[in-house]
Amino acid sequence: MRIALREAEKGLGRCSPNPAVGAVVVKRGRLVSMGYHRKAGRPHAEIEALSRAPASALCDSTLYVTLEPCSTFGRTPPCTDAIIAGRIGRVVIGAIDRNPVHAGRGVERLRSAGVRVTTGVLEGQCRRLNVGFDRWISSGRPWVIAKIAQSLDGRITRPPGEPTKLTGAAAHRRVQALRATVDAIMIGAETLRRDNPRLTVRGVHAARQPWRVIVTRNGILPPGSKLLTDNFRERTLVYRGQSWDEMLVDLGKRGVTRLLVEGGGEILGDLLDADLIDEIWSFFAPLLTDGNKPAFGGSGVTRNAEAKLLHHCRLERFENDILVRGFVHLSNDTQRTL
After folding, report:
1. Residues recognised as catalytic
2. What's the number of CA atoms in the CB half-sphere (13 Å) around residue 333?
């Protein structure tokens, strides 16, 4: 299942709005084939793995899959039919599909055909991989990830005229890998005017370009900005004077399941005050810059008991920079499985 999870991770940001899924065929303890869902409308992970295995190896083999196989016709035929036709002896499933069209039906279909089914293997990791899909399928809105690069004293900018980047090259590569897993990247108009960013995915093979989202109150934007003039300008959305609810619902309608917010501090503070941030990626550079641009603006809390705690925190080091990341929101059943 861990191998299947590594396969599934390859599909994050590429197969939306479908979930990222990986599959592995094993027979007599030997790995036969692997696959993952590459793009919406293309074969699912199970079909990729089955098609890569010799037909003679499928009979009585075990299929490991990170998410319950689909049992209905959509843009592709049901994966359960292919599993049964391949005479797979056993299917090991990480997590049950949250889509009400599929939830539990794939398991029932397989068992009714005589296939042995085991569920809940590495369920927490499989569920965490698709928190964006689960949020989108249940609410029609994306999972919101806040990414910050800040100094040790919590500032996100350097003095005027100085380079805008605080962290080093290794941290920047990690950010590009993160961008490749999301469907949209959001900034405020102030960040656009100050940094003129590209918000593109660079250095990641076969990555899909996410939507670039600009949030503005007055609609006054620099006409020569890269987001408005480069080759991906058709992938740029501008929201003027709309509520967070309106923006998130509209992004969900566009198939955005994972939204990365890269600033600035006012936008992040507003989202935090509104309790709309689900996950934090905070990079710290070994600098003390002071200044009036904190990583998070907003109203803040009046007492420590109101502070939002991160769940399942992870620390990563990139040369001299440190990344702290974790979940702000998790559903109760997801918390139990992680």
Report:
1. 46
2. 8
